[in-house]
Structures are given as C-alpha cells and as structure tokens.
Amino acid sequence: MTEMHATADDREPKTDANSDAGSTRSTVVTPPPGPHGLPLVDSTLAFARAPLEFLASMREYGDVARYEAFGREFVVVSDPGLVEEVTVGRDDEFWRGEFEHEFSELLDVEGLFFAEGERWRQQRLLLQNAFTPARIESYADDMVEETVRLVENWSDGEVVAVREAMSTLTLRALTRTLFDLEFGDGRADRVRRWVDAMGAYSDNEFFGTRAVLPTWLPSRAKREYRRATTDIASLVEDLVAERRRSDAEGDDLLSVLATGEYPDGSRPTAEEITDQLQLFLLAGHETTATALTYACWLLAAADAEDVRSRLEREVDSVCGDRDPTFADLPDLAVTEAVGREAMRLYPPLPFLQREPHEETALAGYRIGSGTTVQLNMYGIHRDERWWSEPDAFRPDRWLADDENGRFVVADPDDRPEYAYFPFGGGSRHCIGMRFAMTELTLSLATLARRVDLERVTESIDPTPKVSLDPGPVKMRVRRR
Ligand code: HEM
C-alpha cells in the first residue's frame, strides 16, 4: 500500500492579499492538498479497488482534497456547505462534466440525466409533468399493489434474493405508473439482464485492474453489455409502438414523450424518446430497489429489534387490516424514518460529480477547468461532525413528537442542510424524489404488515456500480 500523508502546510489554502476572506471563490494561489508524487496508476488502482474507502481516506487532507486518476484530476469535497455551494449557489458554474459524459458514452445511456444547458431545461420542464404531486398520488395504489403481488408469491420459510426481488417490484411499479403498462416477467427479466450487464461492464472498466487499461480492449463483459443494450433498445421501440397503436391519451411519462411538446414548441425526436425511456427504465427503478434492499437488510439486524417492533406497531395502528394508502403517509413517520436512515448509511448514488465550465475556486483552492469535483455523499452522511454514532442504524434520529404527542419526521439536530442529500440538490436534484419517497415508504409499510425478513446472507459488501450494489442479499421470509 502506498502511504499518503498531509502536511500542515498542505491543509492551509494560500490566498493572495486581495482575496475576499469570506468567499470561497477568493483569488487563489494553491491547488487543494492531496497525495503528491504518486504515480498516476496508484490512485487509479486505489480508487478502483475500494472507491468509498479511497474517498474517505481523502478526508486526511481536509474537506477539499485533490488526487489524480484515470488520466485526469479529481477534487473530493466533503463539506456540506461546499456541496450546497456547488449544486445550488453556483450551479451555473458547473456541469456534469467530461468524466460523467465518458461514462454515458461508454454505457450508451443518454437522456435527462446527461443533458446540458437549454436542451436539459426543455426536457426537464416537459418531463416534470409526469411528477406533479397529483400524479404521484395517483401512482400510490399501484405501488402498494405491486408490493402485495411480490409478497403474496413468497411462502413462509422461503429464502429470497432480496436485491432481485426489489428490482422486480420497483420495475413493475415504474412501468405500471409512468408507462401505464403491465410488465410481464419476461420484460422485467430483460431489463434486469441489461442492468446486471451494465454493472458488470462498468465494474470491469472502472473498478479492478482493467481501470488502468484502454477501454477499447475487447472483453466478455463489453460484448454481453452490447448485446443487452441492443435488446433493451428493441424493447423500448416496442413500448413506444404499443402506445402509439393504443388510443390512450394519458399523462403518464410515455404519453408525455410520445405525444407532448417542449415549452419551446418543438417535439421530442424519436431518438430522444428512446433515450429518455431507456434512462427512466434504469434511473426509475434501480436506485429505489437499492434503498429498499438496504432498508430490509438493516431492519433485520440482531440489534434492530426495537426498530422493528416500533415499525410494526406503527403500521398495525395506522393500517389495521388493510394495506397502506397515500393518505396514510403523514402517519407513517417511523416507516419513512427507516427509509431515510437506510439512505443515510447507504446512499444509492454515493457520490455526485461536477466539472467547472472554466477554472474557478472553492474554499480558496484552485479548481482547474477539466477537474472532476466529487461530492462525497457517502462520507458526509457518515461524518461524526454532523451525526452522532454515524455508523449506527438509528431511524429515531429522524423523529420528533408533535404537539399532539404523535411522531413526525423531522431533522431535530442542528446540522447543515447538505449533511444529508441522497437526492442531490439544486436545479439538477432528482426529478423522481417524491416518486421514490412515496414508493419507499408505502412498500416498506406493506412489507412490514405482512412479513418479517431474517438475514441468511451474513454480511454485505457495498460497492459503487450502477448504484451502490450490496452484493447478494438472501433473506428468509417469516409471514406475520
Ligand atoms: C431512492 C431512489 C432514488 C435516489 C436515491 C435517487 C438519487 C438521485 C440523485 C442523487 C440525483 C442527482 C444526481 C446529480 O446531481 O448528479 C438524481 C437525478 C435523477 N434521478 Fe433520481 N434517485 C432516485 C429515484 C429516482 C426515480 C424513481 C426516478 C424516476 C422515476 C429518478 C430519475 C432521476 C433523473 C431523470 C435524474 C436526473 C435529473 C436531472 O439531471 O435533471 N430517480 N437521482
């Protein structure tokens, strides 16, 4: 292992005499501190082998730290105020950046997530019609029904692969709500094969020893991913053709795309429709499935008995002998707190990336153009400066009593807003945030009413892939 040490000198940004001491954009003469003098390949391999641990190790150099890997410069930001500055206050100075776009090209995924400038704005304004509060409310029953359908197929004592089960659930809920389509097992399997192949391929290219090899080298993972991508493109074409053949004039996402107009009066091209559908098939189910998997896993810990019984008491008293509905959400505070706490410990997208349009400064350090700024969400969510017992699963940290003695979700501790940002922030925050929180809470409540899940897999190994992949998670079903 290569040693990386900060010197006291490294930690102090040097600004010139004319700089404005209160601004983090002050004139700067130093780059951020970081591991100096390492051959490029060392940081690349260290990041590739264990990205979360590598980003955590950069805290040694301070809240803004620099390293080089993959032939480019990175700056890791581990301070909530600076995350807010980059994503909200100064978001016009930053874009997703070349590194993210290389990833998008490699994986051949485009759409809203990767669009920039005016094109992005037009797309976001059109697509957000499918995510209004009224639309989300109209999706809630389908989310619950899909969860019931999943659980009803489980028998008492059966061991289930939770990660796969949750992605089938969220995929079916997504296609039923946003595409107004029933997705049979065959189609759900095709999407899962695509996501798995994407995970294997990105893992292969970015993590492990291949990270230092040229990406044009052939590999089995690449061939399999290409095959899966061709298959998913043809699935998406079928979906659009089916919608156009039916006279449905819904306001679901598929209809908005197939029949809607951008605010500037133009219409999505065939290619844009395909890109968006592909992106939403991925972004709309994978992250929520990940959050649900970690929530189930954390709830089943031996020392989480109190949390489990509090959750069950809440669900039983709110729902009685029926399944939860959208109207129950304000009363499902413990359930929501479980979902929030799971995403604090295991944020599905554990770091976000930005690049300045031109050279700028942050916290008094120079950020060169072409530098990838990594917002260290995983590290900030577990930082002892903002969280007591940061590694402990404690949903109660999100709960307070209201004046009637009822639990409400609150963040009572005095901490910076961006100490918790699982859905990002600013104009590029997650468009599906409300959708995801509704699904997470209602699905967890529906599961808690019907089953307990016991751990069969003893330990997990969270690794950033398409999202923060826990690896295999087998659990035994106990019907309540
Ligand atoms: C627990 C579930 C989810 C989590 C944790 C999550 C997280 C995020 C985060 C952190 C971002 C911002 C990325 C950045 O700023 O670089 C984002 C963006 C996005 N998310 Fe989500 N997401 C979730 C669910 C969903 C759902 C359900 C959908 C769609 C139905 C969705 C669609 C998108 C899209 C399209 C973007 C890009 C928005 C833009 O750039 O304008 N996400 N998500």
TrEMBL record:
TM region positions: none
Keyword line: Heme, Iron, Metal-binding, Monooxygenase, Oxidoreductase
Listed GO MF terms: heme binding; iron ion binding; monooxygenase activity; oxidoreductase activity, acting on paired donors, with incorporation or reduction of molecular oxygen
Domain of life: Archaea
Segments for region (Disordered): 1-36
Keyword NADP: no
SUPFAM superfamilies, per database record: Cytochrome P450
Known cofactor(s): heme
Protein name: Cytochrome P450
Organism: Natronorubrum halalkaliphilum
Lineage of source species: Archaea, Methanobacteriati, Methanobacteriota, Stenosarchaea group, Halobacteria
